[in-house]
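Title: Comparing notes on inverse folding

I've been comparing how different people in this forum approach sequence design from structure. To keep things fair, I'm posting one structure and asking everyone to reply with a full sequence. Here's the target:
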């Protein structure tokens, strides 16, 4: 049997040539890591982000990797901006094959019983309804094309372990896992796979804006002795976008270096 060299293997597996992905919050942190992985595998990437300056910087990084990419200004809490960004994405790339609903945030901080209804609803809007609204036009597009597709959302291990003082974050990140399971059942026979990525402690701007004690605890609880890097997150994006993940749907894939299996 003829041995495959590295370049031939890359063409055979995890090849995203002509695959178009939307990555919300793709101008930094986990979103940019996902976008870089997709670009390295030959994918075309539409970065959606609120900040035009950060969008431009992310676009420059992706193009430096040789990626075919474009950036669109979009606040995913706005249905109007989502509709406009989706329309612009289709104009630029003609289609969408996968959508990484990555944009979100920590939401309110403090004791749940002392948090206002408005703050709770703002967190739900940011981390749950933004996903529902982002996936809506993508799903309609895939069904109309009768094309296989991928819907991926960034959840968190906080949806499993909980985070004291951030009940809104833990709750909404758990809610999107329920959404993933429901949509996997709704859309599976149409060839659309729906999955969640659950990062642990990864070196992002948001995670590093925590106390030294919290970061030290995350390192101690890692089964591999370190916290995650953004480069660690590139491969899972490629895998879930590619045909190699075709038999995986409705799943919450934990990327935490063994944090959740560490004994208390």
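Reply #1:
Here's my take.
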């Amino acid at each position: 049997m003829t041995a495959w060299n590295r370049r031939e293997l890359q063409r055979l597996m995890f090849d995203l040539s002509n695959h178009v992905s939307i990555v919300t919050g793709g101008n930094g942190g986990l979103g940019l890591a996902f976008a870089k992985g997709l670009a390295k595998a030959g994918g075309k990437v539409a970065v959606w982000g609120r900040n035009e300056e950060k969008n431009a910087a992310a676009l420059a990084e992706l193009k430096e990797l040789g990626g075919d990419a474009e950036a669109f200004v979009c606040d995913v809490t706005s249905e109007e901006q989502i509709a406009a960004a989706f329309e612009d994405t289709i104009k630029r790339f003609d289609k969408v094959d996968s959508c990484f609903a990555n944009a979100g945030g920590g939401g309110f901080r403090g004791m749940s019983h002392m948090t206002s209804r408005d703050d709770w609803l703002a967190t739900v809007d940011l981390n749950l309804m933004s996903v529902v609204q982002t996936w809506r036009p993508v799903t309609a597009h895939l069904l109309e094309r009768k094309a296989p597709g991928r819907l991926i959302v960034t959840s968190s291990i906080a949806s499993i372990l909980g985070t004291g003082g951030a009940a809104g974050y833990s709750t909404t990140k758990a809610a999107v896992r329920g959404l993933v399971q429901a949509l996997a059942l709704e859309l599976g026979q149409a060839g659309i796979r729906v999955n969640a990525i659950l990062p642990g402690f990864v070196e992002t701007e948001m995670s590093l804006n925590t106390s030294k004690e919290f970061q030290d605890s995350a390192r101690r609880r890692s089964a591999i002795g370190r916290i995650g890097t953004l480069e660690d997150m590139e491969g899972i994006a490629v895998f879930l976008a590619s045909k190699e993940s075709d038999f995986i749907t409705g799943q919450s894939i934990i990327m935490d270096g063994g944090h959740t299996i560490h004994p208390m």
